[in-house]
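In the laboratory, one determines a bound structure by crystallizing the protein with its ligand and collecting diffraction data. In a computational setting the workflow is compressed into a single prediction: the sequence and the ligand go in, and a structural description comes out. We illustrate the idea with beta-D-glucopyranose.
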Amino acid sequence: MKKLLATLASGAMLLSLVGCSSASTAATAAATEAAAATEAAAAASGKTVKVGVSIYKFDDNFMTLYRTELQKYFGEQTDGNTYQVDIQDGKGDQAEQTNQIDNFIQQGYDVLIINLVQSTSAATVMDKCKEANIPCVFINRQPSDDDMNKYKDDATYGGKYTYVGADARQSGKFQGEIVADLPNKGDLNGDGKLQYVMVQGDPENVDAQYRTEFSISQYKEKSGLDVEQLDMQRGDWDQAKGQEIVANDLSQYGDKIECVFCNNDAMALGAAQAIEAAGRTVGKDIYLVGVDALADAISLIKAGKMTGTVYNDHVSQSHKAADAAIMAVNGEKLDQFYWVDYIKVTSDNIDTYNK
Ligand code: BGC
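The predicted complex, in structure-token form:
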């Protein structure tokens, strides 16, 4: 059989050679072959692109999903380049992160992807990157508009930096709507007001600021009811802190609390533990919402132990961040912002929300 195939193949080759008798056909074939060879050579000799990533801290549930997906996506690129991705842990310390950035620059990295420890450090990071002419993609912690505009129209650095993220106002609004859309609008005691506790992330972060503000303003607008804030505390995005804050609030305010808003799911998971420990039942005598759609939060919603969450699309965000980095390395001009939508998640769409 092998022999037969070989004979057929060489026959076919002979036929094709005979077929290419005219000079112009031969020239076209040669040109096509040459082009294919150049392409193959380019792919084979693709460059190694050094990508320096610093995450504000590794010990963050959401950013762990994000960085894992980022690394994976770079590894899946098929443009012939090799992406050498170095992801460092900022350990919640701006000085540590600045040091990492200095090292990336010194070692001639081609592009940086930075999840700032403090968003107010954006200008300093941009100054450093501009000086070294290294493109920079900010992720997750949005710098101020002033900082983002700093080199917008600069002849050399304009279009070489960007922010990739999701508009936290939208996630806050979705939280407010989840509660306002409940049949009783969350007003368990029927006094025309929603008594609530707000567990904030790091208040320096716009995600925390916007979620805190817009969850409540949208709740009021959608429900037509008033609100009464019983407590607001910073939980720094952390499950243990969320648990502690809500446990204290439950013992202080007891049945008065109708709803717990958490700026993220990690803190909502902690809140859910505290609620269960206090003998309260979500959906019956209290409501609880978060943001991120972590797998554990999704399980709690399925089990009726959380009212809802908002999907913070780390997959699209990490892909866009990598795409922007690759574009910049290839000399393409970047937009100032790339946005990804949030998605409301309740028991109604839990199996289909990210399909
Ligand atoms: C996420 C939080 C995360 C924070 C880190 C937010 O967008 O919702 O879970 O801790 O980013 O900056």
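Residues 56, 60, 62-63, 140-141, 201, 205, 207, 237, 264, 266, 291-292, 312 surround beta-D-glucopyranose (CB under 6 Å). Keep in mind that any predicted model is a hypothesis to be tested, not a measurement.
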